[in-house]
Design brief:
Residues 1-24 are annotated as: Disordered. By secondary structure, the protein is an alpha+beta fold. The protein contains 13 helices and 37 strands. Helix 7 (519-534) crosses helix 8 (550-561). The mean pLDDT is 94.
Length: 699
């Protein structure tokens, strides 16, 4: 995709040098002006964006549209294929709760879900909330929650119609199907009912988009009257609120990326003062699973790096009463847990693969649910009810569509409820999924999950889309995706590099990919690319790297460190201006992110570490692969100006004529376009870019 006289010239961002001095180090930033001074207002009302910034972003959109014009037919073809693999009138298997079973369904042509219920053992379905109807006339619309009250008479539902993730909550009377006058604005998007169904607890966002306060809203009152239940003073922590399965407790969770704290109060007494379970200690995490008269707590306290489960009386949950019930086993990372009347359940990852383990609370007997494929994904959905022997889980692999099971924890019987339907057809036998390992620079072995068509030649001629993330301990599952098939059917090898910074190989895998060891994430990804070439899966000029958010930062870093290893790079909502963002404590996520990246405001060492890899700060005069950056104007997580500045600096310094494209959605935020089909259009765009770079435009 070289520039030529047939292509328009890219937008030129004027340079307005701004200096910043920290720890005696002065940096110049020529493109800081792209950060809107009134960014808080823009998130609420995009029309308030400064005209000169809007003009530049619109020029970027015009440029990328011109360069991608020859892919328009392919984009439509890809979109049609992807849509054809979706069962448009799909519906979930309803989950039972009291007298009803609740579920989600879609209609043919519908973009948004409908929330439904029916009698517990079957009968007429009632639509509680129609997402398509609520979205009418809105450029962007996303439903954040739909939660019925304990007495099943009302429904809290939340929505965002700007993409800025400032959610509004409404309450629907399920007898009349009309929304009440209650309107709760600027919330985190979810809520938890009190035990009497008289009101709910929620978090309110401040002007910097931080959830630091918990309020209680009583049905029928104005939001201005809502009492403050809890206030967190440290902007470096996230606050959330949740209820228990028996509706007996409300839990207030405070956490950053390495430390947590939990408070509790009785769900039938909103006026009660919250009670602290365990005071925060830096580096200690814990989470609660109520189990009747006891709490089961998942924690890394006491040096349990890969986590353990302890039990404590619900009336005396303080740490001095914690007793190990599932001790730590190094190398086996416990990911999550849940408690039911007769069973304790947890999800763990051992040797890179997930499994579900069940313990009988009466006898202590344990057994596991596991599968045999080289790489697969499990999801633990649990149950809405506490007194049950039945839980729900899902299974898929990169070749196997998702299968949903009910599992009897007592009899160990699996009941297949649903297999993901691919209307246009799917033959798992036509594809190969593998797990291979790339040797990293320091000798560690980096797992790579692979998907390719059985007829694809592994002689180095195949193009490859190599995906990576590698931050916050997030593990990228080797799960099924209908969209990927459009690449794989055109001869691509689809690869996921499970780099350090995730927890794919235990908690140490995460620790060795953060802060001063962050460079391991980038080196692992580059090692994965080079291993794929050595093993004949692809060649360097045919590898298109792909990552989003913190994975977009990975894309920026590998572009600087090893541009020759990639033919193209797709960076979605890329976190590329790391140093400037971590220095700006007014931004929504900056203080809570310091444990992950370091605090360059107070620490010169952290400053120098981040400066050494921050993609924007390390762009230099060298050849770069073709790059596509994608962003959303109202994104509160990775602000639009990060990729805007990065693209401008790349164009200024790069020494080749390969283009850099920047597409910005002026009506959306971090998650991209709303609606299931609108999102597919964005995937089709990215995949068309990858096919063009790989020379497969007409395949």
């Amino acid at each position: 995709m070289p520039n030529s006289t047939l292509h328009p010239q890219p937008p030129h961002a004027p340079k307005h040098p701004t200096s910043d001095t920290r720890h005696g180090i002065t940096r110049m930033d020529d493109y800081a002006w792209l950060r809107a001074d009134n960014w808080q207002e823009v998130f609420q009302d995009p029309s308030l964006l400064a005209p000169e910034i809007r003009k530049h972003l619109e020029a970027e959109n015009a440029y990328q549209a011109a360069l991608m014009q020859d892919t328009e037919a392919l984009q439509k073809e890809l979109f049609s294929e992807m849509r054809g693999r979706i069962k448009e009138d799909d519906s979930s298997v309803p989950i039972k709760d009291g007298p009803y079973a609740y579920g989600v369904s879609y209609v043919t042509g519908g973009q948004h879900p409908r929330f439904v219920r029916m009698p517990r053992d079957g009968g007429v379905e009632t639509i509680l909330l129609d997402g398509d109807r609520e979205a009418e006339g809105k450029a962007y619309f996303s439903i954040s929650t739909s939660d019925h009250s304990p007495d099943h008479q009302r429904l809290i539902w939340g929505f965002d119609d700007k993409g800025s993730e400032f959610f509004t909550l409404k309450v629907r009377d399920l007898a009349t199907m009309q929304d009440l006058a209650d309107l709760v604005t600027n919330t985190g998007g979810s809520a938890s009912w009190d035990a009497k169904s008289e009101g709910f607890f929620y978090t309110r966002l401040d002007e910097n988009h931080r959830a630091l306060e918990v309020y209680y809203h009583r049905i029928g009152t104005d939001q201005s009257q809502d009492p403050l239940i809890f206030k967190e003073k440290d902007p470096g922590f996230f606050v959330s609120v949740d209820g228990s399965p028996l509706d007996d407790y409300i839990f207030i969770d405070i956490h950053d990326h390495e430390t947590s704290e939990c408070w509790m109060l009785p769900a039938d007494n909103p006026a009660a003062s919250p009670r602290l379970i365990a005071p925060r200690q830096t580096g200690i995490e814990y989470s609660i699973a109520p189990g009747g008269d006891v709490f089961y707590i998942l924690t890394n306290a006491g040096g349990a790096k890969d986590f353990k489960i302890v039990v404590t009386p619900a009336h005396a949950p303080e740490p001095e009463n914690w007793q190990d019930v599932v001790p730590e086993k190094p190398g086996r990372l416990i990911l999550s847990h849940a408690a039911y009347k007769h069973h304790l359940v947890w999800m763990e990852r051992d040797n890179g693969l997930p499994r579900i383990v069940i313990r009988d609370r009466d006898t202590g007997e344990e057994h596991a649910i596991a599968f045999d494929e080289e790489a697969y994904s499990l999801g633990l959905h649990g149950s809405a009810e506490y007194d049950t022997d039945i839980i729900r889980f899902s299974y898929s692999s990169m070749t196997t569509p998702e299968q949903l099971y009910d599992y009897n924890m007592r009899t160990r019987e699996r009941t297949l409820l649903k297999t993901q339907e691919v209307p246009s057809g799917h033959n798992p036998q036509a594809y190969v999924t593998r797990r291979i390992f790339a040797p990293a620079e320091d000798g560690e072995l980096v797992p790579i999950s692979l998907l390719y068509h059985k007829d694809t030649k592994l002689d180095g001629s195949a193009p490859c889309l190599l995906y990576g993330y590698g931050s916050y301990g997030i593990t990228i599952p080797a799960s099924f995706s209908t969209s990927r098939l459009s690449l794989v059917d055109r001869g691509f090898v689809y690869a996921i590099a499970h780099v350090r910074g995730g927890k794919d190989k235990g908690f140490a895998w995460y620790e060795n990919g953060k802060r001063e060891k962050k460079v391991n994430t980038f080196k692992d990804f580059i090692a994965a690319a080079r291993h794929l070439v050595r093993e004949g899966f692809t060649s360097h000029d045919r590898i298109i790297a792909h990552g989003g958010s913190a994975g977009g930062m990975l894309m920026g870093a590998i572009a600087n460190m090893a541009p020759e290893a990639f033919g193209g790079i797709i960076a979605e909502v890329p976190f590329v201006d790391v140093l400037n963002t971590m220095l700006d404590d007014t931004l929504p996520l900056t203080p809570p992110e310091w444990p992950e990246w370091g605090n360059p405001i107070t620490s010169e060492e952290d400053y120098r570490t981040i400066a050494s890899y921050s993609p924007y700060d390390n762009v230099k005069a060298q050849a770069y692969p073709v790059i596509l950056a994608i962003a959303g104007l109202t994104d509160p997580r990775v602000t639009y100006w990060e990729p805007a500045k990065w693209v401008a600096k790349l164009r200024e310094l790069k020494t080749d004529d390969r283009p850099v494209l920047f597409k910005i959605n002026m009506d959306a935020g971090h998650a991209g376009a709303s609606g299931r089909f609108s999102r597919l259009e964005e995937v089709a765009y990215s995949y068309a870019f990858a096919l063009k770079i790989a020379g497969r435009l007409n395949n």
